[in-house]
Amino acid sequence: MVTLPLKRISILFAAAFGIAASALPVQAQEKAVFGIPGPHNVQFSYLWYGNKLGLFKDEGLALDVITVTGSGVLLPQVAAGQVHIGYANPDLTIIAAAKNEPLPVRFVMNWLRSQTFEFVTLQSSPLNTLADLKGRKLGVGAMTWGNLPLSRAMLASVGVQWQKDVEVLPIGLGAAAWRRLQAGEVDAVNLFVGEHGRMELSGIPIKRLPMPEQFRTLFSNGFVTSEKLIAEKPKLVAGMGRAITKSWIACKANAEACVRAYWDANPTARPAPGKEAEQMKADLRQVLVDRLQVDDFAAGAPRRYGQFPADSWKRLIKVMHDEGLITRADIDVSKLYTDRFVDEVNAFDVAAVEAQSRAAR
User: Fold this and answer.
1) Which of 66, 276, 305, 313 is the most exposed place for a label (fewest CB within 10 A)?
2) CB count in 10 Å sphere of residue 295
3) DSSP string spanning 6-20?
4) Which of 17, 53, 47 lies closest to 32, judged by CA?
């Protein structure tokens, strides 16, 4: 397999937090690579914060984060073992399984428990529904993004055929992508909650086109690993899942310290002199932008991070089959995910993590 280029962002290193390298028991830690299918930003601050608090070190892990362009690029890296845990969308694994070409990977944690990808246009746009996209241009992050099959299905459900009734163009992320919407080069964009929030923070007035209900409640990104890693290093899988979950809990308990950890570890994210208060205000609006999706637990249900609702995969497969994305629905979901790590992922004292976080600066 050809190794795809990866952009590495190191977050465990002594220089980031002023710790002498000799003080780190590197020999006792195992490298653990976490992959993100897009550029890192403040909404992933919980990873850096958990690392600063020593939550990965407590699991015997030395965390490394890499970024790639989309789940279509990330999943092969997970399958090859170059990435231990990937933050990916499930659609491509279902499509592969339906073609009898299953990827040797398994989702081990449900993270975004409802949809995070939205269709957005300018507030001044005449578009008000997904059906209004017929004859228009739609911007997406990249054609390798894992959400695109489901986005295609959403449009098909209202009679808009992908690349036939609507032209789909890759526009990337950030200010350059937003300018294409403002300039009318695309009529709407299909990005994610955090990116749309940043657009609003930049002063661009936008509106969200309503999502069909059968899609809104489907889970989105989760954590995926290789079948080989599950078999050979289940402790690493469970430890990463637990450390990430504890990091999320810690970030919620002290969001400002969480943001500062991200600044400390990523120099380009640091505010300009005299702008700290202004940027902190903006970053606090983004640091937990996925909270509605991550903490979307049923009323009265226990908060068991990582667990997939019993019918979630079958519902997703049915929607994809009904909309013509796959030709068969008789897919063995046990080959797509496992809940075997859920108990271990949640095996920690939430109050203790929150107290540790509140005491941090």
Assistant:
1) 276
2) 13
3) -EEEE-S-HHHHT--
4) 47
Name the phi and psi angles at 303, rounded to 5.
-85, 90
User: What is the spatial distance between Cα 348 and Cα 203, in angstroms, rounded to a whole number?
Assistant: 41
- pLDDT single digits (tens) 81-125: 999 999 998 989 999 999 999 999 999 999 998 888 899 999 999
Give the pairing type, strands 117-122 and 206-209. Answer: antiparallel
Per DSSP bridges, beta strands 30-36 and 222-226 are unpaired
Instruction: Tell me, rounded to whole angstroms, the distance of Cα 3 from its chain centroid.
Output: 22
Beta pairing, strands 7-10 & 61-67: antiparallel
Nearest alpha-carbon partner for 104 in 73, 80, 74:
80
Backbone angles phi, psi at 233, to 5 degrees: -135, 60
Judged by phi (left if over 0) then psi (alpha if -120 to 50, else beta), residue 328 lies in beta
Which amino acid is present at 60?
A: G
Written as six digits, the tokens of 14 are 């002594």
Task: Retrieve residue 124's tokens.
Answer: 């001044």
- Measured CA to CA in angstroms, residue 79 lies from 75, 86, 173, 301 at distances of 6, 10, 26, 33
Q: Do 220 and 115 form a contact (C-beta atoms < 8 A)?
A: yes
Asked if 289 and 193 count as a contact pair (C-beta separation under 8 A), the reply is yes
DSSP state letters, 265-323: H-GGGSPPTT-HHHHHHHHHTTTTTTHHHHT-PPTT----TBPPPTTHHHHHHHHHHHT
Q: What predicted TM-score, i.e. pTM, was given to this entire model?
A: 0.80
Separation of alpha carbons 6 and 234, rounded Å: 25
- Give the CA distances from residue 109 to residues 145, 171, 206, 214, in Å, rounded to whole numbers and listed in that order: 19, 30, 32, 22
Q: Residue 310's closest CA among 347, 350, 348, 342?
A: 342
Asked if pLDDT for residue 20 goes beyond 90, the answer is no
